[in-house]
């Protein structure tokens, strides 16, 4: 890991974030496992690409410093417990504070990328904040927030896993129908992939489609944050 811990000041209090690199900023939005090694490695990868990457601890109100893996049932149980208690509205408020921090700390525009729970938060970030470009991977429950889609005024890219165990076909079709006519939104579907297909070392990791999605994300940020 090449980054450092920083403190973000928000309305409700201060919370920690992992930060790496310098340049235009990208806020990395956690999965349900907290700011773990996977999230830190994503930040380090973005730093190598020439970005300032900041991954905030969004579970700080519940339990600061959560760093779970996806390798044991106990950790899965803990992760789902935290997700059940988590308030997405407060999470987006915290992300907005990180975006403000990143605008002051970075050297240009600010993007965001989120995974799983973070995929939902990425979508809500596009709806509710001034983020310049946002990407969501296999976001859950986006279909329940499509009434906010008309608030998206800057580029948003969503990667949808066709066989997502947490987002059924009906929910996926609702997402597509609700977003397909928004000129700011780009949808990519991966028909054979399950949830978290881009998580390195995960049970559903698929190297080919993960690289395809990540290549699309890199090009998206180069185009919109450059």
Automatic annotation (TrEMBL):
<dbReference type="Pfam" id="PF01738">
    <property type="entry name" value="DLH"/>
</dbReference>
<protein>
    <submittedName>
        <fullName>Carboxymethylenebutenolidase</fullName>
    </submittedName>
</protein>
<feature type="domain" description="Dienelactone hydrolase">
    <location>
        <begin position="22"/>
        <end position="224"/>
    </location>
</feature>
<dbReference type="InterPro" id="IPR029058">
    <property type="entry name" value="AB_hydrolase_fold"/>
</dbReference>
<dbReference type="InterPro" id="IPR002925">
    <property type="entry name" value="Dienelactn_hydro"/>
</dbReference>
<dbReference type="GO" id="GO:0016787">
    <property type="term" value="F:hydrolase activity"/>
</dbReference>
<dbReference type="InterPro" id="IPR051049">
    <property type="entry name" value="Dienelactone_hydrolase-like"/>
</dbReference>
């Amino acid at each position: 890991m090449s980054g450092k811990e920083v403190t973000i000041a928000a309305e409700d209090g201060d919370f920690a974030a992992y930060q790496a690199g310098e340049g235009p900023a990208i806020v990395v939005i956690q999965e349900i496992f907290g700011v773990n090694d996977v999230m830190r490695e994503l930040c380090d990868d973005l730093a190598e690409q020439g970005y300032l990457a900041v991954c905030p601890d969004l579970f700080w109100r519940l339990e600061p410093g959560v760093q779970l893996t996806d390798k044991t049932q106990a950790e899965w149980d803990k992760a789902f417990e935290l997700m059940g208690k988590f308030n997405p509205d407060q999470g987006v408020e915290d992300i907005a504070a990180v975006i403000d921090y990143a605008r002051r700390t970075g050297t240009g525009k600010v993007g965001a990328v989120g995974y799983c729970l973070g995929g939902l938060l990425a979508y809500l970030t596009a709806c509710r904040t001034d983020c310049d470009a946002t990407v969501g991977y296999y976001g859950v429950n986006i279909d329940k927030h499509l009434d906010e889609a008309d608030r998206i005024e800057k580029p948003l890219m969503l990667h949808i896993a066709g066989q997502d165990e947490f987002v059924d076909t009906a929910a996926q079709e609702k997402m597509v129908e609700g977003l397909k006519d928004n000129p700011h939104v780009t949808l990519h579907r991966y028909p054979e992939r399950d949830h978290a297909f881009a998580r390195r070392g995960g049970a559903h990791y698929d190297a080919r489609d993960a690289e395809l999605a990540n290549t699309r994300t890199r090009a998206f940020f180069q185009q919109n944050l450059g």
